[in-house]
Amino acid sequence: MQTVETFTFSPAAVVSVIIPHFYPSRRDNVSRLIEYLRQQTFRDTEVLVVHGVSPQGRAINTGVRASQGRILVVLDDDTRMDPAQTRLIQTLVQTLETHPDVGMAGASIISPDDINDFQRRAARQFPRFHMPVVDRLTDSDMPCHGCAAFPRDIFEKVGMERETILRGLDPDLRVRIRNAGYRVVLVPQTWVYHPFPENSGKFLRLFFRNGYGSAYIQTFHPEMNYDTDEAVDSRAFIPKRSFAHRIARFPLRLLKSLVSFQWIRLLGYSIYAVGYAAGFAKFNALKWSGRNAQL
Q: Which numeric CATH code is attached to 4-197?
């Protein structure tokens, strides 16, 4: 199979939907995404599925370079679309066309009704997995690669995606877009589904990888190590904190999770710390030996 598989709905695509697809187990979901995109009211679209390219930033850029649309939409390969949201692409396009100061327009990420009890309880403890659906255009740190739209010219202007980082793609891109003078917003009455890991094993692997990837960034690209916000409105959010600040507040986050009986969150933070420690040891050994980490 070719690296970039293209599905063209219109000979002159205005929108290019990029789906980085690395895990073969998600192929059925990718097929469903393509069918839902065919049912969208906005038809001037092409879909580019990027197979087997990692990290995610490199996969997205590979798709962008093969695309033709002046508006880019990125969907994760485990994102699920609501069949009732047939105007999703049209709404994202209208937002960018009527608000030229917007550089990134995201749909809210919510949990579908068919999740299990573990996923339901976890989503309540991790707000980024179950965002509010806003009723007005809202400047926010919540938009992410689960479903986000960008004007191509702005995306290219800020340097596209980072191709060398294992984690932190979303916060890095949001910061660069804001620093270029553009807004990052949630679009009203627009959502997709992005379920929390379905069991404790997948959950533990996710948070271990997140901690491991954070250690990579802190070791080789500390200037890109940004915070994320769990509040919908980002006006008071400070994306860059010192490493000392981040280390000092970590036990406070563990304590807060403990006293509020958020056991899944406490476990997630703990496994994140284990992954960070493993990555810190490995990447600093590579750094001091003069070798590069392999992505």
A: 3.90.550.10
